Amino acid sequence: MTAPDDSPRLDRAQTHAETVHRIYRDRRAAPPARELLLAVAYALFIAPGEPGRVLNTAARTLGRDGAGLPRFDALVADDAPRYEPPRAAADWGPGGAPGCEAPRLRPYVYRPRQAPSPLDDEAVVPLRPLPEPVVHVDPGYVPPVDPRNAHGICGADSHHKVLELDPRTGWVLPHWFCKRHVDHAKRVAEQVREQNAAAPDPIPNCGGLLPAYFAAPWEDVYRHYAPATWSPPSYGLCADDWPDPGNNPAPVRSGRLRLLAD
Fold this sequence. Notes:
This protein is 32% helix and 6% strand. The chain is mostly helical.
């Protein structure tokens, strides 16, 4: 009697180990994306399941969240390739937006505001002046410089936003200005108008990791789980195929594994 041939099983285990190693080395994969990739790799190589039902097996492996919803759905939707602008480019209200970046003409000096009194000035009883505070610091201490003075910017509450598009990556660079610098905002908007019109489509900066590891009709999968407004980027679905904007670490390139999607 001859022993059964275990070489296919060993090959699958070896391929799974190599895939897991690549996933952990990939600095683009945040913990949620890493968990999704590991679940798909486990379903493809290790977990017993029906052939061609790999994604179903991965979904069962990931389970449900606190609200009872499948975690797989949200993780795949979050891996949909897309560009997400910075938070500073959102429609913030006064006080929530970044400070005005117009140039400051004179140094900022802190002036505490006095609370208005409901009484007449003659009826207000003057309070005893407080003693000067005593602050104990180490020898050689240098007080910090106010950021508005350090960067030479206004820093007041912003009301006007101007978006600049990078001519190389198409990414958004927001500029904010206060009410006193409306003319400055209009001047900056005019300066970036032609540049924005000629800017390319933004290079995706989120998602695209599943196609980097597994071959499948991912566009159909993303359309099923992503929001209805999602559309495939012009640069492709795989994060390995996107141009490097010069800010992200080089991806770990390797051959993609074959996956028969559900």
